[in-house]
Design goal:
It is a single chain. The protein is of the alpha/beta class and 368 residues long. It has 2 domains: 206 residues, Alanine racemase (TIM Barrel); 124 residues, Lyase, Ornithine Decarboxylase, Chain A, domain 1 (Beta Barrel), CATH 2.40.37.10. The protein is 26% helix and 23% strand. It contains 13 helices and 18 strands. The mean pLDDT is 95. The structure holds pyridoxal-5'-phosphate. Pyridoxal-5'-phosphate binds next to loops. The site of pyridoxal-5'-phosphate (PLP) has 11 residues, from loops.
């Protein structure tokens, strides 16, 4: 028998606002008009949960990710539109599976070109030929593209071809100049559709253009421009995930008393400290330093001492009304994830992806 447990015993939860996600998708579409929008849902939809977010992405023209098993799961969930595998296949044995499910594949390496040209498939694949424009991670060098395109055009395994690239520095003001001119030099030799833009490229669509765009992080309400505080809100992006918990204990410290492991925080005066049910085992970054903002009962306060596995402490000295049970937002609608990430020396992407299995999720914002 399954033991009974209260569904939300520990007060932490991640609330996913599907209305905000749908609105962010609509914004991406407006910015990149008339391009097709392939919503990027890799890494379990940036930590939000594939099946959870799918209803909010109904308006996307396609989905893009790189985990084959998740792509198959999307078909099982009923997604019939294109699914693009962003790293393609890792072994030729995946090709029949991809053909069976009608997946589109990136081809970024000679080994993949060879495998594809040798394959006998029950259905042809839509292929995105990836050009390396300076990221030097994946992609064919510009000089190899012409020969590759002509081989793929002659292959029985290929239905359509699209040229694509992924920019290393689309979030930097001058980051597009060199790669764009390199890519244009390649693309102008063919009459093929192109796909260039991630979120940063969608936001800069006037400079980047393209027939298919691939926004990821912006859909989840976080900004690809990590160094510019407040960008997400300025762009009109709405936070999708709120990581919420509660105060589970309040401590009174005398001057000189310390908080948490290692006693790294020491009270200067009489202080009130709140203990929150959230720690690094929930995905909150352990390296977030004292001073990182935390929203308690609708007010900003600050983290004090070390984040531990299950708990963290905040300063409640200026919030005398806050008691055990008070609501806490670690990031979300009142406190942008990008701001917390900047304090913790990382980016919103990492925090969103890192929320762990033990955190229960709740969905709001999209009434069927
Ligand atoms: C992850 C990824 C994207 C989306 O990037 P964001 O910065 O999250 O918008 C687009 N294209 C490729 C190839 C990717 O791997």
């Amino acid at each position: 028998m399954i033991p009974f447990f209260h569904p939300a015993a520990r007060p932490i939860k991640a609330v996913v606002d599907l209305g905000a996600l749908a609105d962010n998708l609509a914004l991406a579409r407006d910015l990149a008009e008339p391009a097709k929008v392939f919503a990027v849902v890799k890494a379990n939809a940036y930590g939000h949960g594939l099946s959870r977010v799918l209803p909010a992405l109904a308006a996307a023209d396609g989905l893009a990710l790189l985990e084959l098993e998740s792509a198959i799961y999307l078909r099982a969930l009923g997604w019939r539109k294109p699914i693009l595998l962003l790293e393609g296949f890792f072994d030729g044995s995946e090709l029949p599976v991809m053909a069976e499910h009608g997946f589109a594949t990136v081809v970024h390496h000679e080994a993949q070109v060879r495998a594809l040209c040798a394959a006998r498939l029950e259905r042809r694949l839509d292929v995105f030929v990836k050009v390396n424009t300076g990221m030097n991670r994946l992609g064919l060098s510009a000089g190899r593209v012409a020969q590759t395109v002509s081989r793929l055009r002659g292959s029985d395994a290929v239905r359509t071809l699209t040229l694509m690239t992924h920019f290393a520095s689309a979030d930097e003001p001058d980051g597009l100049l060199e790669p764009m001119s390199l890519f244009r030099g390649v693309a102008e030799r063919f009459d093929l559709p192109v796909s260039l833009a991630n979120s940063a490229g969608v936001i800069r669509y006037q400079e980047v253009g393209g027939d298919v765009v691939r926004p990821g992080i912006m859909l989840y309400g976080s900004s690809p421009f990590a160094t510019q505080a407040g960008t997400a809100a300025r762009l009109g992006l709405k936070p999708v995930m709120s990581l919420c918990s509660r105060i589970i204990a309040v401590q009174s410290l005398a001057p000189g008393e310390r908080v948490g492991y290692g006693g790294t925080y020491r009270a200067e005066r009489h202080e009130r400290i709140g203990i929150i049910a959230c720690g690094y085992a929930d995905g909150y970054p352990r390296h977030a330093p004292g001073g990182t903002p935390v929203q308690v009962a609708g007010e900003r306060t600050r983290l004090v001492g070390r984040v531990s596995m299950d708990m963290m402490a905040v300063d409640l000295t200026g919030l005398p009304a806050v008691q055990v049970g008070a609501p806490v937002e670690l990031w979300g609608t009142a406190l942008p994830v990008d701001e917390v990430a900047a304090c913790a020396g990382t980016i919103g992407y990492e925090l969103l992806c890192a929320v762990t299995q033990r955190v229960p999720f709740e969905v709001t914002g999209l009434t069927p």
